[in-house]
Amino acid sequence: MKDPGKTTTTYEIGGMHCASCVYTVEKALTNVEGVDRASVNLTTKSAKVTFDSTLVDEESLIDAVNRTGYKVVFDQLVLGVGGMTEPRDADFIQSRLSELDGVKRAVVTFSTQSAVVEYNPAVCKASDIRSLIKEAGFEISGGEIEDREKVLREREMRRLKILTAVAWLFAIPSFLYSPGIWRSVPSLLSVLPLGEAVAADELLNGVLLLGLVIPVQFGSGFPFLRGAYNAVRHRRANMDVLVAMGTLTAFFYSVLVTFVIDGELFYDTAALLISFLILGRLLEAITKGRTSEAIKKLLGLQAKTARVVRDGVKLEVPVEDVGLGDIVIIRPGEKIPVDGTVVEGDSYVDEKMITGEPVPVQKKAGDKVVGATINKYSALKVRAEAIGKDTLLSQIVRLVEEAHQSKPPIQRMVDVIAGYFVPLVIVVAFASFITWYFVLGMPFLFAFTILISVLVIACPCALGLATPTAVMVGTGLGAENGILIKSGEALETAHKMDTIIFDKTGTLTRGEPSVTDILSVGFPLVTPTSPDGGSTQEALTEDPERLMILWAAIAEKNSEHPLGEAIVRKAEEMGIPVEEPERFEAVPGHGVKATYEGKEILLGTEKLMSEHGVKMGKLLEAKTDLEGQAKTVMILAVDGTALGLIAVADTLLEHSAEAVSELKRMGVEVAMITGDNRRTAEAIARMVGIEKTLAEVLPQDKAKEVQRLQEEGRIVGMVGDGINDAPALAQADLGIAVGSGTDVAMETGDVVLIKSDLRDVVASIQLSRKTIRKIKQNLFWAFFYNAAFIPIAAGILYPFTGWLLVPELAAAAMASSSVSVVASALLMKRYVPEIKRKGTQENRKDISPD
Question: Whole-model pTM?
Answer without folding.
Answer: 0.69
